[in-house]
Amino acid sequence: MIRLKKYIRTVEFLIDEGKIRHVGANNFSLKKFKKAQYIPKKFELVANQLEASFTDQHHIINSLPYLKKEGVLMIVQSPKPKYFEIYIPKYYRKQLELIARKHKATINQITLAWILHQKNVVAIPETPNIIRLKENVQALNINLTLEEFQLIKRIGAGINVENDYEYTQWI
C-alpha cells in the first residue's frame, strides 16, 4: 500500500505539472482498484486495463459490474484468447463457426465482437499486421444477437453447449 500511495503522489505531482490529464490503472485486481480509488486527492481513476477474453472472463465477471457502477472504463488487452486454436474443443469451435458463418466473419472477429458488446468496455486487440488490423476493424460492424452473445459467453466459460446453437436459431 505504501508503494501505491507513493505512486499516486507522483502522479498527482505530474498532474500539477500539466503533464497528465487522465489516469488509469493497469492489471489492478478489484480489491486493489477499490483501495487505489480513494487515495488520490487530485484525480479519479478513469480506467482499469485488464487481460480478458471470451475464454478468460474472470475480470468481466468480477470487476466489470463495479467499474460500470463507478463510471470507470474497462480496457481489455489481448482479447484474442491465448492458444485458442490449439485447445478449444471441436464442438465449441463448430458453434463459433456457425455464428461466424452467419455474420460472414471469422471466429476471431466474432470473439472480438463479443468483447466489444460489453457495456463500458473497449479493447486493445492483438494487431501484428495489416490483415489483422482490417479484421479487427470489421469486428466493430458485427451485431450479435442476445442468443449469440449468451452462447459465446457460455462457450468461453466452458459450459457444454453441444447442439445449443441450432436450438437457439429456432427461438
Describe this entry's structure for a reader:
By secondary structure, the protein is of the alpha/beta class. The protein has one domain (2-169): Alpha-Beta Barrel (TIM Barrel), CATH 3.20.20.100. Helices cover 51% and strands 12% of the residues. It has helices at 2-16, 30-37, 58-62, 64-70, 84-87, 90-102, 107-116, 130-138, 146-156, 164-169, and strands at residues 23-26, 45-51, 73-77, 121-124. It has a four-stranded parallel sheet. Helix 2 links the parallel strand 1 (23-26) and strand 2.
- Helical residue percent band: 40-55%
Report the portion of residues in β strands.
5-15%
Number of self-contained structural domains:
1
The assigned CATH architecture is Alpha-Beta Barrel
- Give the ordered list of helices and strands: HEHEHHEHHHEHHH
Distance between the termini: 52 Å
Radius of gyration: 19 Å
**Treating each run of at least 4 consecutive H or I residues as one helix, how many helices?**
10
The global form is: elongated
Question: Count of DSSP E strands?
Answer: 4
The CATH homologous superfamily: NADP-dependent oxidoreductase domain
CATH topology: TIM Barrel
Unreliable spans: 160-171
Average the pLDDT over all residues and give the rounded result: 86
- Biggest sheet details: 4 strands, parallel
The top-level CATH class is Alpha Beta
